[in-house]
Amino acid sequence: MSVKTSKIIRLTVSYLLLLLAIIIVVYPLLWVIGSSFNPGQSLSGSSMFPENPTLAHYQYLFDTEKSNYLNWYFNSMKISISTMILAVIAVSCTAYAFSRYRFIGRKNGLLTFLVLQMIPNFAALIAIFVLANRTGLLDTHLGLILVYVGGQIPMSTWLMKGYLDTIPKELDESAKMDGAGHFLIFRKIVMPLATPIVAVVALFAFIAPFGDFILARILLRSEEKFTMGVGLYEMVAKQFGNEFTTFAAGSVLIALPIAGLFLMFQKYFVSGLTAGGTKG
Amino acid sequence: MDSIPSTTKTPIIPPLKTKHGRNAALLSIIPGFGQFYNKQFMKGIIFLILTVAFFSSFYSTLNWGFWGLFTLGTIPGVDHSVFLLVDGIIALLVALIGLLIYAVNIYDALNNGRKRDRGLSLNSVREQYHNLLDNGFPYLMISPGFLLLIFVVIFPILFVILLSFTNYDLYHSPPAKLVDWVGIQNYIDIFSLDLWRKTFFGVLGWTIVWTFGATTLQVAIGVFLAILVNQKDLKGKAIIRTFLILPWAVPAFISILIFSGMFNETFGVINNGILASLGIDTIPWMTEEMWSRVALILIQSWLGFPFIFAMTTGVLQSIPEELYEAATVDGASIWQKFRSITLPMVLFATAPIMITQYTFNFNNFNVIFLFNGGGPALPGQNAGGTDILISWIYKLTMTSAQYGKAAAITMLLSLVVVTVALWQFKRTKSFQEEDTM
């Protein structure tokens, strides 16, 4: 077998395998998009390419009198954006202190963060529920946001600390010589240089509430306060299949912006994570 | 610490003439007095005021909290045991903070006393203020994050630890009934009562199979596809990569719910469309334990491989081309190049992340719960056929109100996770670097 034919075989096999992989990846997504245009509520009889497609399910979702979907959308956005802002502030401060200062309790603090990062905070969901109940934060978005921010801190702090460690300390020192205070150095010298990692942390914090289901389900009680995840789950769980096409439309509407955002920033995700994995 | 009572005179001649350090430390048993002794009046007054303020504002919190923590209430219907437990933990945390301030107070007095012993002059009020700013800045910076962590992470952990030693369940449910301390009874029950033991080991077994099966499959697929796409003469890399990354981009809970529709036995497209066209009978994906497990592992591979794929692609692109060229010159086959260049490089660079994938799947609640609620139900067990530890805990808490047992199982689970995590991070480079500082 000549070099050329072996190359052709190798490439053909590669393309075929990749085609198969792409079909498996895309099929469920196309299927749900197709379902969302199917007339009727039930899943049975729906097809990927409906003969008479309809936008009825999308109209239903945007009808605020019939569905809470827009409410859920805004709730999710509100929670994600607040989580992002608070997490970035808390993480920047903490990571900066751990990276630039040597103080009593520093090493134990870092170790604590490391261990906490491993325990998913919903493992203690009874406690979170009882605490929220006790403090009156049950069924409020504030309670949920605080839990999300707290959950982001340990891991993101390690990520950001790893990055800040690579910014030369000579910069702060020369600024200090020029009479800059602690907070000024933090805000004007170091943080502007750390924008890439701030973006990664912000994105993680923004996406995390969308990935969560369990905490939101436990803490939020009334339907108009639901997040996207809980709302869509309730939609399919109530009577499975009976509202599936509506659910499909709802999924498409939320998945599109998230996926778009994600693909745009994908490069940062990967670099942030590999940096975190090998460095911090 | 230099804390020998002043009455015991030691016959050995002290190395220093004065004993200001010891005296100051002893005096600061009443906070502030050590500082007065060191003639740092401003600081002393601050410590004294802090102490008085602490006791006057937290006295009832502490008193009530510790009483509640020890008794968990005495009058059914009036005392709410679980709230008492919460208050007790808050009292515990407040007391810890108090002790910390107290320790700082003694340490400060001792330190400044020792300085005087050595004949050094002490800082003026002005210098103290600047010192406080300099040394206090890192603490100021970490305090918002740390405070939040205490309430949303550390507090819950303490709560669960304590709860696992109580009999809190449906029959001991406040406010009507009281909860009591029962020692390690929950742990004994899990391992000695037939129902619990059988369920626990059943669930644990599946959790382990699930963790290793699903994770290994997703890692293998991800690495394989990344290498496939990265072939030099393959066209259309960018578009292929975008397609393959899609499952990561779509929120997982949506994908899982879509899959649970597709795998539905009566109207799902997998049974009615794909398998029917291949002439295969319907498969009970949701109601047969074995098939549910297969479906879950397949779904998780779909969800999880893009992450590994992206990671590996990053590593592959950083491998210098010269390595392969040199290998080609030496007459290495594709397989040899893969085995001695590609694979070691990929594994070395992504190992820490791969391990976090295992811990992630170990606690991957969403996919188990959203697919079919951990079902199907099994006879002689109180967990479903595909329940992993975390989803079983959720069920015990949310549907059968077995709070005490659920807490005990959470403790067992956390033990596993923390052990693995610590073992892993002890080995990573970054933490070893930290150690030398």
Automatic annotation (TrEMBL), chain A:
TM annotation in the entry: 12-33, 79-98, 110-132, 144-164, 185-207, 244-265
SUPFAM superfamilies: MetI-like (SSF161098)
Protein keywords: Cell membrane, Membrane, Sugar transport, Transmembrane, Transmembrane helix, Transport
Gene3D superfamilies, per the entry: MetI-like
Subcellular location: Cell membrane
GO biological process: maltodextrin transmembrane transport
Primary site of residence: membrane
Membrane topology reported for the UniProt record: Multi-pass membrane protein
Domain of life per record: Bacteria
Gene Ontology molecular function: any one: ABC-type maltose transporter activity
One cellular component (GO) term of this entry: plasma membrane
Segments forming domain ABC transmembrane type-1: 73-265
Signal peptide (UniProt feature, chain positions): none
UniProt key word Magnesium: no
A Pfam short name: BPD_transp_1
Family: Belongs to the binding-protein-dependent transport system permease family.
This protein's name: Sugar ABC transporter permease
Organism: Peribacillus psychrosaccharolyticus
Automatic annotation (TrEMBL), chain B:
Keywords: Cell membrane, Membrane, Sugar transport, Transmembrane, Transmembrane helix, Transport
Sequence intervals crossing the membrane: 45-70, 82-107, 146-165, 203-230, 242-263, 294-316, 341-360, 406-425
Domain of life from the UniProt record: Bacteria
Topological relation to the membrane, as annotated: Multi-pass membrane protein
Compartments it resides in: Cell membrane
Transmembrane recorded as keyword: yes
Principal location: membrane
UniProt GO MF annotations: ABC-type maltose transporter activity
Keyword Ribosomal protein: no
Gene Ontology process terms (BP): maltodextrin transmembrane transport
Entry's Gene Ontology cellular component terms: maltose transport complex
Every ABC transmembrane type-1 domain range: 204-424
Family under the similarity heading: Belongs to the binding-protein-dependent transport system permease family.
Annotated protein name in UniProt: Sugar ABC transporter permease
